[in-house]
Amino acid sequence: MTQIFLNYRTTDEPFGVAMLDEALSERFGPSAVFFASKSIPLGTSWEQEMFRAVGASTAVLVIMGRRWADAVDEHGTRLLERPDDFVRREILRARETGKQVIPVLLETTRVPAEKLPGELRWLAACQDIKVGFRSSKIDIDRLATKLRNQIPELREAKPPPEKNRSGKRVVRADKIDNNFMGDWSVGGDVNLGAGRVD
Predict the structure, then answer these.
(1) Where are the extended beta strands (E) located within the chain?
(2) Partners of 197 in the beta sheet?
(3) Among residues 51, 20, 18, which one has the least CA distance to residue 37?
(4) What does the DSSP 8-state code read for residue 12?
(5) Rounded to an integer, what distance in angstroms lies between the CA atom of residue 97 and that of residue 55?
(6) Residue 108 backbone phi and psi in degrees, to 5
(7) For the chain, what percentages of helix, strand and coil (3-state, to nearest 5) are there?
(8) Which of 33, 36, 77, 94 is the most exposed place for a label (fewest CB within 10 A)?
(9) How does 29-51 read in b/e, with b if 16+ C-beta sit within 10 Å?
(10) Residue 40 Ramachandran class (φ > 0 left, ψ -120 to 50 alpha, else beta)
C-alpha cells in the first residue's frame, strides 16, 4: 500500500528524485513509495493512476530543486501558474484530501510565499526538510526516520543491523558465505567472533 507519494517536476533534479525513491523504497519497500516512472503499470491511464495514488497516500513529498518554482513552458509561462500543471494539481489534491504535505528541498532554499501562486502560498509555511548533495545519505536517513515516526503504517522492509553488547554493529557471516558460520563484530577493527570453519 502506498504511503509516500513523490511529487516532482521532471525537468527539476530528476536524479535527486530517483535517489529518494531508491533509498525510501529500500527502507520501506517498493510498494510503500509511489514514483510515477516506476509505479504506473503499463497500459493504464497515467493521469488516473497518479491521482488515485495521491488519494491512497498518507504523505506527499513535494520535491523542490533549484528550478522547481521557475520552470516555464514553451511560451515562457511559469508552469506553477498554469491550472493544468500536474505538479500543482497533485499538491492541491493532497491539500484537499488532508494528506501530510512535506516540502523536500534538494540543494536549494525555501520558496518564499510571494513567489508561489495564491492557491499554493500555504506551502511556504509547511515545515520542510533539506537534502544536500554532500550530506545526502545522512539527510535521507533523517527524512526516513521522521516519516517512520509520523506514519504509523510504515514498516521497515528489513530489520535494522544487529548489535552486540558493546553497541557495535554485528554482521552475520552466514549471510555472506554459507561456508562460514559465525559473527563478525564490526568496529574500528574487524575481529572474528565465535564461529565454525568447515
Answers:
(1) 4-7, 33-34, 59-64, 100-106, 129-131, 162-163, 169-172, 180-186, 190-197
(2) 180
(3) 18
(4) S
(5) 7
(6) -150, 175
(7) 40, 25, 40
(8) 77
(9) beebbbbbeebbeeeeeeeeebb
(10) beta
Grid cell 495564491 — which residue? 118
d(CA 63, CA 69): 11
What residue has cell string 536517513? 141
Whose cell is 489534491? That residue is 93
Owner of C-alpha cell 550530506:
135
Nearest in space to 103 (alpha carbons), one of 159, 69, 64: 64
Question: What whole-number distance in Å separates Cα of residue 120 and Cα of residue 132?
Answer: 24
Over its length of 198 residues, how does the chain's per-residue pLDDT go in tens digits?
A: 679 999 999 989 888 999 999 999 999 999 999 999 889 888 888 889 999 999 999 999 999 999 999 999 999 999 999 999 999 999 999 999 999 999 999 999 999 999 999 999 999 999 999 999 899 999 999 999 999 999 988 888 865 555 555 555 554 444 444 443 444 444 454 444 444 444
Cell of 92: 492541491
DSSP 8-state code for residue 30: G
